[in-house]
Amino acid sequence: MKVSLQILAVLGVLATSAHAEELPIFDAHMHYSHDAVSFVPPNEVVKILRDAGVRKALVSSSDDRGTQLLKAAAPDIIVPALRPYERRGAIGTWMHDPSVIDYLAKKLAKFEYEAIGEFHAYGDDIQTKVIQTMIGMARERNLLLHHHGDREALDQILATWPEARVLWAHSGFAPPNEVANALRTYPRVWADLAYRSDMADSSGVDEDWRKAFEKFPDRFMVGTDTFAPERWHYVGRHAEFSRSWLAHLPDDIARKIAFENAEAMLAAK
Amino acid sequence: MIARTAFLASFALSSSALACPTPPDATQLIPEADHAPAAYAEMNTPPLSAPFAMLVTFCDPAQKIEALMFDALMPAHRHGMNFTVDVSKIADNRFEVSNIVFHMPGLWELQFGAEFAGRAYTYIAEVQVK
Amino acid sequence: MNWVVRLVGVLVCLLCGLSSAQADVILSKAEIDQTLRHGPWPPEVVLDPSNRVSGDTTAISLGEVLFSDLMLSRDRTISCASCHDPEQNFTDGLPRAEGRKTLDRNTQALWNLAVQRWYGWSGDSDSLWAQNLTPLLNPDELGHDENSLRAALVASVHRPAYEALFGEMDAEPAVETTVNVSKVLAAYIETLRSGKTSFDQFRDALASGDMKKAAQYPLSAQRGLQIFVGRGNCAFCHSGPAFTNGEFHHAAVPFFLERGGVDPGRAEGIDRLMESPFTLAGEFSDDGSKAGAWAVRNVRFQHGNFGAFRVPTLRRAARTAPYMHDGSLRDLASVIQHYNQIDMERLHSDGEAILRPLGLSDQDAEDLEDFLRTLSDD
């Protein structure tokens, strides 16, 4: 029965409160990369976002052109982030590519961004010259860092720049107690739940996750992760999924995770 | 099904005595915290992409574990299982985890969460699936 | 003395022969162990407990006739065999199926389908008989509804055979008739089993320690097998005797549809499972113990299901081009090159982390193809 409930949750059947139906979403993990631009044009993306009730979206793209196109098409929705590499295939190598620094400098000089990321880095990757320089560039501009990686890398980012605001992508794919530990350790770390579904279970919300949400109601947010072009067609479904499991939390926590936490994170400069 | 029934029956025969220390063929669960009670899992060789069950035993009779959570993932592939499992308490400090499916060969990391008097203990173990 | 010399001579020759044969089996001990896990073949015949006519000879005969009967389509223009052509290994050789219109997916062959966990590219069904309902009732395929199918059967020459299996039709609800027809078709389809191939001969020889016989397996196929179980990472998903783990994966294949939108793959398959009254957990299963129902009850929703498709068997695959869920790869060489140069941009960094460009040489690719062909030469 529990899985049936999971699926019903996905389909929105369990989103029983009228409040949940209307819950605005801040999608904190989106990409609009070069191939997505050719398959799903900006006006279609904007329609997808509006239809899904996504009021704001933190968007980073490989390359950055997609972000700029979307920003121009929907400045009220798009919160731009600068990804440090121009092709997704570079996620494991970009930190060894010195041209990344010039790329970042050029983009930061030309456009406005709220964040650098989403960038992939594990463990000692953070000590590479490219990432250390990138963190320095973010520090100069007080930009959020959207980091995809493990706790060790997260620790090293905060050791490099203790006041950094970091959005921990997918919350490191760590279990809820470990995510909670990171949030306890670092008051300026926030946790995105993109590409995860383990929060939803037979009772609506997994008990361990519920404890984490109740302990840190101001620190979590949702995200679709449109890593491939087709996944733009998943945005509506993901928004419904989010509303469904959030409907099983107290209204104020649900509102925070759905939207308010991301806004507060961006404002916490 | 018959094999599983026989497995459980053999377990039931031995369950009158506290099954600690760890039986030689059991998999020791590694606790995250030093003060967590010793625990082990008993299972037949996990089949590939087919459901199987394991028995999990906690060894401290002073701490009655109230609930057990189980999950597993493949660190090298960075994905987990395609199914949820069923957990049932079959005796004090003993649980059966059933309908575990490891759908790919390789190293699986098993993750256990045990609840006792409002406290949570976590354990891990590893199994190689062929 | 002569006797001793002759014996020594015979032993020397035997050892020479053994040594020569062993030299022609180039697999390491570990590779042999991995190879043994792809057998034995064929597997033991298992009847479907959820289908009370599974294994029934009358049902099998009726199913075979119905399979090619135009009566199974509402407008009597096509049958199961129109797409699953017995002369073409129960597929059609087309990229995407042609029903009443061009469908979104490739027609899968029907070999070795008895008692799988999931059926179809997206696993919409957990039994073969339930899967048969999809083409029967899909307006773009055979196009029946329950009532039209029942009426067609009542008026057909098959009614006596059907009633011999299921009893009088007069009072039977149309949904029962529809499910029974699907079970009769399943009884036939589950008899379609591929035979022993040269790979199986090789594998059996290794299992029995007959290295001389094993050495008859071509060297190029052995090299291909080494890639398959080794650096190709193929055996992670194409595992076991049927060369599939029966589950769902992303293989970096685009899933946009020509008509617009996307094919949600497994995500939609799970939706359909959850909505279906025809699963192994439901009342139409003939298995009172509901033994197979655990899968539909415990299947896990994951965002990665979106655009994931079921891993197909590789047995007889060489005869059933084109490949992938949308038939977008025309031959085995194209499939090998797809994985050899896999587009990492299409994969999430967490989920299918073993997929990487393989760096196969032309010779490697030919060897891998030679190996794959030995899964289809029965």
Overall description:
The complex is a heterotrimer of chains A (about 270), B (about 130) and C (about 375). Chain A is of the alpha/beta class and about 270 residues long. Chain A has a single domain, classed as Alpha-Beta Barrel (TIM Barrel). Chain A has helices spanning about 1-10, 20, 35-40, 40-50, 65-75, 100-110, 130-140, 150-160, 175-185, 205-215, 235-245, 250-265; strands at about 25-30, 55-60, 80, 115-120, 145-150, 165-170, 190, 220. Chain A has an eight-stranded parallel β-sheet with strand order 1-2-3-4-5-6-7-8, with helices on both faces. In chain A, helix 4 (about 40-50) packs across helix 5 (about 65-75), helix 4 (about 40-50) runs parallel beside helix 11 and helix 6 (about 100-110) runs parallel beside helix 7 (about 130-140). Chain B is about 10% helix and about 45% strand. Chain C folds into two domains: about 25-40 and about 195-265 and about 305-378, Cytochrome Bc1 Complex, Chain D, domain 2, CATH 1.10.760; about 55-190, Cytochrome c-like domain (Cytochrome Bc1 Complex, Chain D, domain 2). The chains are: A alpha/beta (about 270), B mainly beta (about 130), C mainly alpha (about 375). The interface of A and B includes residues 2, 173, 175 and 177 of A.
Short description:
The complex is a heterotrimer of chains A (269), B (130) and C (378). Chain B is 10% helix and 46% strand.
CATH superfamily of chain A, called what?
Metal-dependent hydrolases
Shape of chain B: globular
CATH superfamily of chain B: Macroglobulin (MG2) domain
Task: Tell me the CATH topology of chain B.
Answer: Immunoglobulin-like
- CATH class category name of chain A: Alpha Beta
Which percent range fits the helix content of chain A?
40-55%
| DSSP strand content of chain A | 5-15%
Which structural class fits the helix and strand makeup of chain A?
A: alpha/beta
> What would CATH call the architecture of chain A?
Alpha-Beta Barrel
